[in-house]
Amino acid sequence: MKILAFAKVNFILEILGPRPDGYHELVTVFQNVGLADEIEFEPAERGISLEINSGKGLEVKGNLILRAARKLQKHTGDDKQGVSIRLTKKIPVGAGLGGGSADAAATLVALNRLWQRGLSDEDLQQIGSEIGSDVAFFIRGGAALGEGRGERLTPLGEGPVGHAVIVRPPFSISTADAFKAYRRRSDWGPPRDPARMVEAVGKKNLNLVGGELFNRFENVLYGEYPVLAAIRHTLAAAGCCGAVLSGSGSCAYGLVEKKEEAEAIARKLNLRECEVFAVPLVSEGVRFQDVTPTLNRTT
Ligand code: C5P
Asked: Is the pTM above the cut of 0.90?
């Protein structure tokens, strides 16, 4: 069984303040994009194994895929079936694109099917939210408003049709560190209301969405990483209808309507040491690649 786990960007991300549990209350709009990790699942007699092909020496220990698989076993009180998992990592890590959460969600969806656990999307979202704040979003994906830690979801449909030019600078940013930096200041002013963005996404109007892009982490991080402001500016100047930081960074992205425009902008951006991806907005978090039952496969 082979699955694509799609990355996300945040159309808006406002932090409303710290919570007693150490997390922060958020309001965000998630949107999936067509940059995906590939994950293969083969039934095994017993046990859960993971192999990672990333070219970057990512550690297997502590990977959210393993946590997701074990949580699913625990939740259903059944660890008799095993699985061997192979991850081909394409989504940059520490980049604000939700790659680890996407992988965890894809694992829950895949193993629910492979092990025939019969859990609903809502069950999987509940398990996912115990793994990470935005795992629940990826179970269904598309476009959604996220509140609470980001796990309380209101679906916003498929989202607009368009493309994102995503720029990854040559460094990662840890989400926990970004939130710590937010807490070092308190003069943030009135919070951004998500209503106009929600309306723009509902209307599937890319230009309106582009005009409403917002991310509170820009105020938090631009002082320490001025290159992020430069990237956002370059994307806007290159013809994107809006550009903004994704999640807690380090990626910024711009929006355009057409694939050709996205690819032309990606080609002509001249940002040293940055990786650039031109990808469509997509209306799903997880996509099954092959429908042939794994056991009957001849190749
Ligand atoms: O939930 P997740 O494990 O993805 O979050 C990573 C870290 O980011 C948390 O340990 C916490 O420090 C911070 N975080 C937060 N408030 C949120 C989401 C994440 O403070 N809503």
From this structure: yes
